[in-house]
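Ticket #836: bound-state structure for 2-acetamido-2-deoxy-beta-D-glucopyranose.
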Amino acid sequence: MALVLALATTFISILQSPFLWQSVPDPLLGIQNEGPSASSFVNLFIGTANNGHVFPGATLPHGMVKVGMDTNSRNNQAGYDADPKYSVTGFSQLHDDGTGDRASLSNFKIFPTAGCPAFELCETSVFKRPVLRAILPDGTPDDLGKPGYFSTNLSTGVRAELTATRRASLQRYTFQPDVDGSLPRINVDITNDGQRSGNSPTLSIDPLTGRVTGGAVFQASFGPRQYKAYTCVDFRLVSSSDPLLLRAPPAEYGTWSRNGPVLNEVGNNLRKCAVRIASSRTQMFLLVSYGEVGALLGFQPPNTTAPTTILVRSGVSFISEKQACDNADSEIPDFGFDRVAREAQKEWDELLGRIRVTLGEGQEDTRELLYSSLYRTHISPADYSEENPLWNSTEPYYDSFYCNWDTYRTMFPLLAMHDPERFALIVRGMISIQQHEGWLPECRGATSLQYIQGGSDGEPIVAEFYVKFFEYAASMNVSSEKMYEALLADAENEPKNADLQGRLATMWKEYSYIPKDGHTPGGSLAPRSVSRALEYAFSDFTISQVAKLLNRTEDAVKYAGRAGNFVNHWNPETTMPDGPSSVRGMMQPRLKNGSFSYTDPRHCSPHAPPRSGTCYFSAGDLTGFYEGSPLLYSQYAPHDTAKLIELQGGPTTFIERLDFIIDNDYFDVTDEPGQQVPFMYHYADRPGLSTNRTRQTLELFFNTTVAGLPGNDGTVEHSGAMGSYAFFVLAGLYPLPATRQLLLSSPYFPSISFFNPLFNAKATIKVTNFEGANSTKIFVQDVLVDGQPWHSRCFIEWDVFERGSTVEITLTDDITLPCGDSPNALPPSLSTGGYD
Ligand SMILES: *[C@@H]1O[C@H](CO)[C@@H](O)[C@H](O)[C@H]1NC(C)=O
Ligand SMILES: *[C@@H]1O[C@H](CO)[C@@H](O)[C@H](O)[C@H]1NC(C)=O
Ligand SMILES: *[C@@H]1O[C@H](CO)[C@@H](O)[C@H](O)[C@H]1NC(C)=O
Ligand SMILES: *[C@@H]1O[C@H](CO)[C@@H](O)[C@H](O)[C@H]1NC(C)=O
Ligand SMILES: *[C@@H]1O[C@H](CO)[C@@H](O)[C@H](O)[C@H]1NC(C)=O
Ligand SMILES: *[C@@H]1O[C@H](CO)[C@@H](O)[C@H](O)[C@H]1NC(C)=O
Ligand SMILES: *[C@@H]1O[C@H](CO)[C@@H](O)[C@H](O)[C@H]1NC(C)=O
Ligand SMILES: *[C@@H]1O[C@H](CO)[C@@H](O)[C@H](O)[C@H]1NC(C)=O
Ligand SMILES: *[C@@H]1O[C@H](CO)[C@@H](O)[C@H](O)[C@H]1NC(C)=O
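RESOLUTION: The complex was predicted; output attached.
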């Protein structure tokens, strides 16, 4: 009880915290961020071209509704493509961010139709209606975005502006006066999501108010299942002579199927349709079994010689049309576009403002990279609370875990540093999913189970929360008992379909590795066997970390033991064809009888021999590896790098291998199992090499252009995985989930601070002799924590962030300095004493 009260006080004090709203100029530390407007440092368009699949539209932090522009690009997974050669197909309410596979969501496109001479002649089909954007003199499209707001000018002269609350969007369309007298019209598309998968649609128009309600069944993006979604759209004309909003019936309305709008009528141009007139005479319902379906409404301009502005408000729900209407009515009762946009920006400012940096000369661009990366860690997962069609519960419901395999490594650790309340809600939602479905979510989208890539990676996320916040879990309504039950269920219980949830638990327990010739519960051979096993080992490590904190000593020992099982896939004899002889020993698939099978260590890399199997998700691929070569996976046991060093013949050959991997393109930062590779020199007592390699990675692959995300091969932002990774490199830190240590490198800035509202504490990392990010003086020499000498150049403790400590770093140009003299200067590893 006392803790709950203390927490409430903390929340109030956040709002009043001067740290968030005022800048405190420090003349010693260069230029201070100005005022509260952290969101003004965000560039939403980074990664919106060249396969980045980043969502640049309007959303609240982790909002369910993400309203944005959709284009007819092949790379419109998040709807948008920055390349102006692609045309606009509409502005839809739901998106994910930086995902691969089939375009997800992009449901319920609103499209402003200008310049068609008569209702029946309007192009309504998603294939016929697209228009280009206006192009600026520099050749870029006339699009603008900032947190909570997006706008564009179309080549038809229509300006579109978008903003959002959690479950509704508000869109403002401004049409030029039309010389031919054609009406401004709005198309509400019910069925064309990103995959054009909508089926079994419902649609009704209320001719008196213009309200359009509808819904359909859609195909999930990276999974076999379908989901239902609903929308409710209302309109208001804005009259320049009358500042009050005008509630007007539409001048025209009708439904359309494919390219055929029918004025005042529904159904007569549709095959296989059933029309019924509802009890209210103003309501018409239309049910069709397939095809494109939508509504078209025209509005009489209040002033035919002035531009006409139409506000379009769209509520969305996964439960019902009625709930979609209720969401819009309750969240945006006033159609107040500027109010909604202002409130969204304020929420972003407060959240992003928890991180502060001071700048050296010319570092505005680096700051933009930092805040834009931070921004993208707050798009997914999304808060679908009260929108869960699967069961009723008062617990939060989060969705859009797409996928935890991507995000557990850096995104959730970044959330822990500055957004523990959100993290707690997400974890409660995950535990609730486990209680209802049996397993923690791994990959999930639009309320559907999606495919598991490697391990059961809900565990490291839940464990990360607990290891960082165990003393506060109860006060944040996270039940330790249910949390632990959920972890053990994942680790121990065999699911019916281990491609959708859980693990191949029986095999893992029986063999202590995943045999390539072992059968899944569904009866097929297990693809991705090595990738799975290595992830299981790490997840078991995270469970052992939690078990220790719960004083469940036996379990802690048991899961730490299982965490060591990654060695069972280590074949000490495998060598690198055409590689240096020092690179010997590799992760390899294994058979049930114990023999190793052989997968070429170059498989799943740019040097893969022809026909060596696929690197991507495929049920029939038995090479054992997913998104990473056996060589890359030879560096994957993040909880026990000391053991990897031992297996590889000691620090010198280990470093040679890291160099070989990076210099020969075996490292691709977008393949998550290798993310930690440039930081791993720390464990070989050469932190300077990590500083060099991580900065090299950042500078080569991340920048503030629309193409500024790594990978040109369908590799993407991954729901915040890349953003949080770039953030950590810029901050000079690297986390290991479910531990209380962070690797230390040097920040790009003279100082960076982290405000954590739960602790009401601000931790600061300062460089005492900052000479610029491009200086040769970038290697850590001395570390003071709260004025006291710290025993390691290689890591700091979570206590720094809990207490709000100041870490002062002095830099040198000497790349050779080791972690330190003391025996515990090296970062921890499981086999050399663990993480206590
Ligand atoms: C679009 O046009 C309007 C009015 O002409 C202008 O104010 C705005 O800056 C333009 N660009 C965007 C992205 O809204
Ligand atoms: C209509 O718009 C024109 C151009 O903006 C303006 O001059 C005129 O006063 C408006 N008429 C009315 C009735 O508001
Ligand atoms: C640092 O170097 C990068 C790349 O070489 C360059 O773009 C940037 O302008 C430089 N920054 C400063 C502050 O000199
Ligand atoms: C949730 O509760 C509502 C209202 O009682 C009910 O209509 C609905 O069917 C329930 N949903 C589920 C999935 O049980
Ligand atoms: C925890 O739950 C209690 C009881 O439902 C509630 O009063 C309190 O506000 C919750 N605290 C948090 C941080 O969610
Ligand atoms: C575990 O034991 C320690 C030491 O006795 C104690 O301080 C702590 O509260 C215990 N934790 C739990 C969750 O029981
Ligand atoms: C295991 O099975 C494989 C394939 O059948 C065979 O080649 C190998 O010799 C067997 N190993 C042992 C130790 O029996
Ligand atoms: C890393 O070291 C190499 C070789 O000494 C050097 O050329 C490069 O500039 C360094 N990169 C960074 C980012 O420090
Ligand atoms: C920006 O990053 C992309 C993707 O990594 C890269 O292809 C491009 O060359 C970089 N551009 C600049 C100007 O550094």
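RESOLUTION NOTES: Confidence is low (pLDDT under 50) at residues 1-34, 266-289.
TICKET STATUS: resolved
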